[in-house]
Write a structure and sequence with these properties.
Order of helices and strands of chain B: HEEEEEEEEH
Order of helices and strands of chain A: HHHHHHHHH
Number of strands of chain B: 8
Distance between the termini of chain A: 44 Å
Helix content of chain A: over 70%
Helix content of chain B: 25-40%
Number of domains of chain A: 1
Shape of chain A: elongated
Strand content of chain A: under 5%
Strand content of chain B: 25-35%
Oligomer: heterodimer
Radius of gyration of chain B: 24 Å
Number of strands of chain A: 0
Largest interface: A-B, 32 and 22 residues
Number of helices of chain B: 2
Structural class of chain B: alpha/beta
Distance between the termini of chain B: 96 Å
Largest sheet of chain B: 8 strands, mixed
């Protein structure tokens, strides 16, 4: 029993260490790939970012709309329905924008990355690259990682902006809050530091989500089942990691 | 080749769109009274109580923001709060006997410094001090006074 526990613990620490080394290796290759093979990165920004744009915009609009509805009906109890702009903007920029974007990103782009890399491994494409003296981490993983890291903050910004549009449509156009009050309350209560908090969060979440996706794909068991499992683990692990990081960053920034 | 081009175009559009969103967030949603001036001069004022005034709070005159609080510290010898604030150099003709009071925007809004013009011919300049100050009105004290006055008023009847 004790033996089992010891082995599990050792395995956990080993995986954790391997993960750190993997991250460092990605970082080590990142600058040169970014400069010399920028086209590869652009392709991945397209895959991770441009293709996720529609789902991000639709979800953002409805999240913003729901904030407008909830904010209006609950703030109306205190006769403060004019503050719905401030409420929606603070919620979107500081919390919901980065977090929900990261979760959607994991579902839309993270799974695609993990299964693509896992399948490359299962069909021995990665080994073939190594045979040709091409480093697969450098050629395959780093551009995908960078693409995700670049896309996430942009997607989160789009999400927040479209969310504000949704909140505006619901509260001003449908529920009749004054448009001037909506924007002025928002502008008075939001500070540049709130925006910075959102940007810092989305950058961290971008690193976490892309890193976990390429890691799971690269370490997938090279079978059909293994690739499927890696895809599932990507989403689950990203969700957990993003929410834990969200808590820590918020506690740190307050 | 055609396909690569369309990928690149849509990537470019995506990045521009994201940048635009970021720009919109930083420019449009923050700071109703964005005060930024290249040239400022620093003025000091002492208050017995600053309430919840913090640095970056606006300094306004006649309702227009003309400066920003840069520092609020406690003077351990005079037992007062010393507030330092920057004023835009364009407004260099503020009489030195103007008085500064700590006001609240709205009933429960944030606090700011309001300057009321005096009549002196000497103007505030870098490093000068506003001598006439009025502390923040603390709502609890006000209610306390009101209750005491009301009770004593009853006693008179």
């Amino acid at each position: 029993m004790f033996r089992d526990f010891y082995n599990t613990l050792k395995e956990f620490v080993r995986t954790f260490g391997a993960f750190q080394l993997f991250f460092l290796r990605l970082l080590q290759h990142s600058p040169s790939i970014f400069v010399k093979r920028f086209r590869l990165v652009v392709k991945q920004v397209y895959n991770a970012g441009a293709l996720s744009l529609v789902i991000i915009m639709v979800c953002g609009f409805f999240i913003g709309g729901v904030l407008g509805l909830q904010g209006y009906s609950n703030l109306a109890r205190f006769n403060a329905e004019d503050s719905v702009g401030a409420f929606a903007a603070l919620a979107l920029v500081k919390e919901l924008g980065p977090v929900i974007t990261a979760l959607l990103f994991a579902g839309r782009a993270g799974t695609a990355l993990a299964s693509e890399i896992g399948l490359m491994k299962a069909t021995d494409q990665l080994s073939a690259m190594e045979m040709m003296a091409v480093n697969p981490i450098r050629r395959v993983l780093v551009p995908r990682f960078l693409g995700g890291v670049i896309s996430m903050p942009l997607l989160a910004a789009v999400f927040s902006t479209i969310g504000l549009l949704g909140a505006h449509v619901v509260s001003v156009n449908l529920l009749g809050v004054d448009a001037g009050a909506f924007w002025i309350q928002m502008q008075q209560s939001l500070d540049i530091s709130d925006i910075n908090e959102g940007i810092i969060k989305s950058v961290v979440f971008g690193i976490v989500a892309s890193l976990l996706a390429v890691w799971e794909g690269y370490n997938a068991v090279p079978t059909a089942e293994g690739v499927g499992r890696a895809t599932t683990r990507t989403v689950v692990n990203t969700a957990i990691a993003v929410l834990i990081f969200d808590f820590m960053i918020t506690a740190f920034m307050l | 080749m055609q396909q690569t081009r369309s990928v690149e175009i849509s990537t470019g559009l995506f990045v521009l769109f994201g940048m635009g969103a970021l720009f919109f967030l930083t420019m449009q949603t923050t700071g109703g009274d964005n005060f930024s001036a290249a040239d400022t001069y620093e003025v000091e004022a002492r208050f017995t109580n600053v309430g919840s005034l913090r640095s970056r709070a606006p300094v306004s005159m006649a309702g227009v923001t003309i400066g920003r609080v840069t520092n609020v510290v406690f003077d351990p010898i005079a037992l007062e709060a010393v507030v330092t604030f920057d004023i835009d150099s364009r407004y260099d003709q503020i009489p030195d006997d103007s008085d500064a009071s700590i006001l609240t925007s709205g009933l429960l809004g944030s606090q700011y410094i309001g300057l009321q013009a005096g009549g002196s011919d000497i103007y505030l300049e870098d490093g000068s001090e506003v001598l006439f100050t009025q502390s923040a009105i603390i709502l609890e004290n006000l209610i306390g006074k009101f209750l005491v006055n009301r009770d004593s008023g009853d006693a008179d009847d």
